[in-house]
Amino acid sequence: MQRKVLWSAVLALFLISFNAQAQKEGEFHLDENYALGANGTVYLSSEDADVRIIGSDRNDVHVKIDRIEYVNGIRSGGRRFSVDVEEVSGDLYIKERRSGNVRISIGSFRTEYEITIEMPRAGSLKIDGEDDDYVIRSVDGSISLDVEDGDIEIFETKTENVDVVIEDGDLRLDGGVGRLYVRTEDGDVDVRNGAFNRIDIDSEDGNVSIETSLDDNGIYEFRGDDADIDLLILNGGGSFFIAKDDGRVSSSSPFKVDEESDHRVRLSLDGGSADVDIRINDGRVRLNARN
Do 118 and 54 meet the contact criterion of CB atoms below 8 Å apart? Predict the structure, then answer.
């Protein structure tokens, strides 16, 4: 009888604890300014964060990081989290460090993690992330991201170099000139208001939609596997070669079909001499030109 009473008391205590509001178990906060060289690069390595990066006319870098862990229930083990920020030869390195493990016996564990970076507009970015989401605005330097399982949005940029490797996430880009390099799997690519002279995009299981002008000396390469490719030419022209395997091709009236067979199509568009090469498997290609 005493044993039953004891277990009932333990169970009641557990239920009260389990139903209680989630408690903060760990916090990290950083709010500092750092120097950046005139042609400096901000390097960021993070995981599971909501990242917001804004370029402006400032000449230093403001870094604000807020990370809070919440536990609802019972957990064992522990985790230590910190961020190293280091100025090296005019560049700025921001890298998180984790150690230990959190094991949830009963209940749930969640984290609120936000990184905000304000930097010089002319500065460059090099990002290595996992499970992060990014919003990048008004950064005109070189932009490079190698991320997994996160979405990327880049707005209001005049960058001459965008280099993105992304898995299981979408890329949205507004602006950009020069070179665009994208490797993506299970994610869509949406580019607007581009003026690129070099494009190299490889997509698997994701759709690609590009608006760009064409440079007369430009080279534009697209490869898709189980992917649709929509290309809108804002200005310029050139020759278009499309190799297709179980794919369909359609084009608007400004395009002239020079050659067509079951597996290849050649088209031309007046207004320039750019070279566009598209190769698809199990997808659709649609070409349009702005009148």
Answer: yes
pLDDT digits (tens, 9 = 90+) for 193-204: 999 999 999 999
SS3 sequence, the chain? CHHHHHHHHHHHHHHHHHHCCCEEEEEEEEEEEEECCCCCEEEEEEECCEEEEEEECCCEEEEEEEEEEEEEEEEEEEEEEEEEEEEECCEEEEEEEEEEEEEEEEEEEEEEEEEEEEEECCCEEEEEEECCEEEEECCCCCEEEEEECCCEEEEEECCCEEEEEEECCCEEEEECEEEEEEEEECCCEEEEEEEEEEEEEEEECCCEEEEECCCCCCEEEEEEECCCEEEEECCCCEEEEEEEECCEEEECCCEEEEEECCCEEEEEECCCCEEEEEEEECCEEEEEECC
Paired with 205 in beta bridges are none
- pTM, to two decimals: 0.87
Give pLDDT tens digits for 205-262. 899 999 999 999 999 999 999 889 999 999 999 999 999 987 789 999 999 999 999 8
